[in-house]
Amino acid sequence: MGEKSEKKKQYILDKAREVFSEKGFKDVTMKDIVDACDISRGGLYLYFSSTSELFLEVLSADVHEDDEEAVGAALSGNASAGDMLALFLKEQKKEILRKKNNLTVATYEYFSVNKVSTKENPLKEKFDTAVRIVEKLIENGIDSGEFYCENPIGCARNLMYVVEGLKITANTIGITEETIDRELMFVLEGLVPDESNS
């Protein structure tokens, strides 16, 4: 695909992301994407054959972009493991609270009616990458004496399950920043060694 075609495809993905964020997944038609992009139906079908294909591509692009930034931030620099974990969680909190361009509703609508193999599921990939990042940060914190944890992978998974639950809560019944902070701190308190037992 040439550079012009790549730019056109990216333009379609950006516009589709806006449409899916606004309308969810189940109510979006190819006509909605055509209208948002101000292109012909044939022009859209040159790149994508269905809203499902388009949505998975939007999700996949989203996942890879987030992962590259998060992995780089989590594993580089001279900051302490605690500072890096706090930075990682700050980014997760922003995602939980994000109202504009949020794909959470569309994502859950899509996956509630479409069966996608585990290997092809961009959400699983994103979740697994986040778990690996948190696990590495916890291990670094254990090595430096900042954290105590007998099961870093279990703790990392638990933390990311809490984050996913908070995302759903934010988009269904609503949530405050204070609630997010409280729930994340509850999980993190288990990592800090108890000085009174030393």
Automatic annotation (TrEMBL):
Entry keyword DNA-binding: yes
Residue ranges of the annotated DNA-binding region, renumbered to this chain: 29-48
Domain of life where this protein originates: Bacteria
InterPro entries: DNA-bd_HTH_TetR-type_CS (IPR023772), Homeodomain-like_sf (IPR009057), HTH_TetR (IPR001647), YfiR_C (IPR041612)
Keyword Nucleus: no
Keyword terms: DNA-binding, Transcription, Transcription regulation
UniProt xrefs under Pfam families: TetR_C_17 (PF17922), TetR_N (PF00440)
Annotated HTH tetR-type domain residues: 6-66
GO MF terms, alphabetically ordered: DNA binding
PANTHER family per UniProt: HTH-TYPE TRANSCRIPTIONAL REPRESSOR NEMR (PTHR47506:SF6), TRANSCRIPTIONAL REGULATORY PROTEIN (PTHR47506)
Protein name (Swiss-Prot/TrEMBL): TetR family transcriptional regulator
